[in-house]
Fold this protein.
Amino acid sequence: MSLDYDTYLSPFTWRYGSPTMRRLWSEVHKRRLWRQLWVSLAEVQAEYGLVQPEQAADLRLHMEEVDVPRTLAVEAEIQHDLMAELKVFAAQAPLGGGILHLGATSMDIEDNADALRIRQALDLVLTGLRGLLLDFARQVETWAETPLIAFTHLQPAEPSTLGYRLAGYAQDLLMDWESLSTVRLGLRGKGFKGAVGSSAAYAELLGVEKLAGFEERLSEELELPFFTVTTQVYPRKQDYAVVSALAGLGGSLYKFAFDLRLLQSPPVGEWAEPFGKKQVGSSAMPFKRNPISAEKVNSLARLLAGLPRLAWDNAAHSLLERTLDDSANRRLTLFVEPI
Amino acid sequence: MSLDYDTYLSPFTWRYGSPTMRRLWSEVHKRRLWRQLWVSLAEVQAEYGLVQPEQAADLRLHMEEVDVPRTLAVEAEIQHDLMAELKVFAAQAPLGGGILHLGATSMDIEDNADALRIRQALDLVLTGLRGLLLDFARQVETWAETPLIAFTHLQPAEPSTLGYRLAGYAQDLLMDWESLSTVRLGLRGKGFKGAVGSSAAYAELLGVEKLAGFEERLSEELELPFFTVTTQVYPRKQDYAVVSALAGLGGSLYKFAFDLRLLQSPPVGEWAEPFGKKQVGSSAMPFKRNPISAEKVNSLARLLAGLPRLAWDNAAHSLLERTLDDSANRRLTLFVEPI
Amino acid sequence: MSLDYDTYLSPFTWRYGSPTMRRLWSEVHKRRLWRQLWVSLAEVQAEYGLVQPEQAADLRLHMEEVDVPRTLAVEAEIQHDLMAELKVFAAQAPLGGGILHLGATSMDIEDNADALRIRQALDLVLTGLRGLLLDFARQVETWAETPLIAFTHLQPAEPSTLGYRLAGYAQDLLMDWESLSTVRLGLRGKGFKGAVGSSAAYAELLGVEKLAGFEERLSEELELPFFTVTTQVYPRKQDYAVVSALAGLGGSLYKFAFDLRLLQSPPVGEWAEPFGKKQVGSSAMPFKRNPISAEKVNSLARLLAGLPRLAWDNAAHSLLERTLDDSANRRLTLFVEPI
Amino acid sequence: MSLDYDTYLSPFTWRYGSPTMRRLWSEVHKRRLWRQLWVSLAEVQAEYGLVQPEQAADLRLHMEEVDVPRTLAVEAEIQHDLMAELKVFAAQAPLGGGILHLGATSMDIEDNADALRIRQALDLVLTGLRGLLLDFARQVETWAETPLIAFTHLQPAEPSTLGYRLAGYAQDLLMDWESLSTVRLGLRGKGFKGAVGSSAAYAELLGVEKLAGFEERLSEELELPFFTVTTQVYPRKQDYAVVSALAGLGGSLYKFAFDLRLLQSPPVGEWAEPFGKKQVGSSAMPFKRNPISAEKVNSLARLLAGLPRLAWDNAAHSLLERTLDDSANRRLTLFVEPI
């Protein structure tokens, strides 16, 4: 990986976030998902006799040939990112190129791709969270009987145990696990409903009576349930639900990290986060043990806490059969990884 | 009802909100719930032989004698609202007064009362929402075939039907119904776990081995599940979940109301909200038909949209076994009624 | 004052906020300001020969007869609060009633009244803040040389002095003083520009060439500068500036209160807030010294922190020459008093 | 510039934002500012006889040799970004390397660099805004007499002129200009006050009596005023002021763009944004003229609107003499460019 340090780079590009999560939110992966959707569309259309099987096969053959720089050059001219990808894909697939995107509107591709990508991201988060919960379970066991003085209002109050305190954090995280799992299971794509959700172009190609079966086949193929009713896009309420659940997780981690920072303060001095051997504490006071991971968690969680409001705004202002005023900020914020 | 117009009165006191919802969030109702919790506690303690049945009965006898002005006079002196209520209740119940609050900490009373009250409020909202969904269902039927031009980017795009457009709003509200129902069913109280959640005082009274059964009896009595682990209070994450779901509903109503306002604009002129016969449109332009209900919905929903962040903050900053920095703003914002 | 405890009452009505601030935000005071604006309008119109001096005088005579219950009865019928007040005022003033509101639109009255009221509220806040700054100045002096260990990352770091630490809070508050003073000095009313800001109705009455002088006279009379350009209302950006500055003050107080809570924690034990003799600490642990005032400040400041976003939304969504979707939430949130 | 499309890239890296602004927020530029601060510190220390002039000169000689990959390799080991830069710089400057950072704490370097960088960014924004205001001024002139029907509540209300409507947006932007200019002029750096703001290490090197003069020389050298009192960092309130003013500008642009979108809707059809010849409107409906620039402005402004809250949180939670929980989110959000 070579990065250009002479331009702005998001810290998520190189400082925070796991490589897996970053790859998921790369241009390449997004375009791979777009192409997968075009291919699935063509394959199901082939089942319905709308395109030739060889055309669909040709598309599948060239599916992996994502070429971002070439596509951006096209986009610079036509100012439409998905259409640029389509043109490049079409040029790569001599047989199938002509039937790409048949009956579709951009959002039949982009929006389903987003749903798939969000689901993949939630799966990563849930996997991480499962591990964290198991760690907590072990620690709760280990320290079940270790006494401590519980604090209310930051005042020593009554005895409790370390295991019990840890169980509180674990219970919070379990609530997050439940709400994230509910959201993940309920995730739906837009399906293939065209420019205003009425499926008009597909109806013209297939006849109205075949519409439902056609969409069902695509849903099977993509292993993605679809919304019954949509506008040009799936209801942005869904993003709000996703981000609210993620921010809830951020809140649990925030509380844990903040408590850790209080407990690592030497006058209390009960906990401390690990400290690397070569790690430098402070340029002026190298003896200090600063809880920098906990501070980082607090800092990122605080950022995350503001995102549900943005998703709310996008949902609330998607005027009539949709506007695009969610697009730019979704590009900036769908990439969220709290662990 | 007489109001003092010479002081500040929240518009929720007299302008917005239903009388039922207002009563639910009155001082009187809150104190009635506190007393109900004290009485249930005494009754279950009587079952365990900790207090005399007559004492519990005496408390039940005087349970309804809430006297806010008298209590506030006591509070002015001791600066603790629940203890003030307790003193007044104790003075009213000569037999039972002495055993009130046995083993309890304030939050064993307040926090369970809040959970009960939030549940009652959610039930009101869900009842309203059920009615609204049925209305939508009827309208979707009625206008299923009525054609219209759908708008994307506020540009006329392709034909759709009015019923289909309405079905979109209904689907949004159904998602809210589901998330509010989930939240409502999952609502838990703190239970009776004392100052730091360790149940120490109750354990001393009952013996550790009877603790679980004792709390279970109270949970049955109050028909309220309890959290397994708590600090002095139930995890404030729960408030975040409640308020996020309510704000989600606010977002759906916002979108509907905003669309209505666009459609009521004469250049489009498709919809209009009802207008009373004697209603005055504008002091300068009485001919105008302003969508004032829709504007009101937008305005209140916008306020509601900011509240999840506050609940998040309260949850994230409930340091160690709790701090009180959620108290003042919860007093101000738990009263939420979006319909 | 008699309050109805059987309905919802905002804690600002009786628990938080000073009596002076509450009176400022009462229905009575608002209506008094409306009437003052009507009277000033009539008096300046009398100067221009548009109404009889006796008519203006009659209005001034009945200006103080605000009768909220009677007005609300009228509003219930016509659903327009300012027009209801106008009808009641007109009925009270037999001579002047007929020329009330001449050439005006509702917002010529309401919006200027809001500007006046916000200014009065800012003056209250600034007076309180001045006192607080003087207190800090004295404390900085007193403790200038008292040594303490400064904490970074909640770790003891290097020596400093108490006076220096206090000077940091004072400098924060001084920044707030400056930004609040700037905002207060810059406050402008809408002036008298009619339904869409074009002053059409006044131009018809006076002739275009007299418009500027007429508005200037009103500005003098009310001691309130006006915006040069408005829509039906003054730009809601102004509210954003006010609330942002107030939230800034809330942030400074929050930091101070949070630090105090940390320092009052017995393991550190450096500071403590005053504790009343009869004050009750905790129902279960009466020995504890909880920093309840600091917690209250944190709680309310956290609420305040969310309000700039609401003001931003109102400003950003005041479509074309205005919509009313700011109204309901401004009724709920213009009342802000952080001290 | 070569970008790695296989990882996450912020849209600000390649889609939104100007090249100049991106360079300002690059790793290279940040490190250049750090080095400039180290050099200025050494030069002023040379004036005070603390270091040799040749040492300072050697540092200036190697100031431009920023080498990000090499530095990141060091950081990977010691987990401290500024200390890594220092090590690399020191290795490059054989004579001066040893006296680098004399008496300083990391934040004496980083925090002043941030203040400088924020100021440069504000200057870019102000330059852009000045151009925009001049454009508006011209348009207001041009269309001063062009009649239109003003809309209130999205209802046609009364006549106005296009020039007057445009003057309203211009007045909004002028208010932003004023508040951004005030913020820009008031920007202060931390100065050189060491780990807790007490200037202890410098006092040891120079003697207390020379401290003020020493800092003044640095302030002159850097053309940057300093705060009188700081903790380890400058008060984070300053960030809140900066971001609030920027969000205010975002709000004005949002209103303008939203109005444009309403006016570009064919039923009104008054305005339209430019549309490129080869631009593609919609994959399904190529005839449409979507206001994509206005939608983009709305989308980004909506994101910006949430950032003051984050800055508030950072300011309010900078516990005692500072914590680091602002760091990660400031890295993510200080890069803001609304035009």
Notes: The beta strands of chain D are 147-152, 155-161.
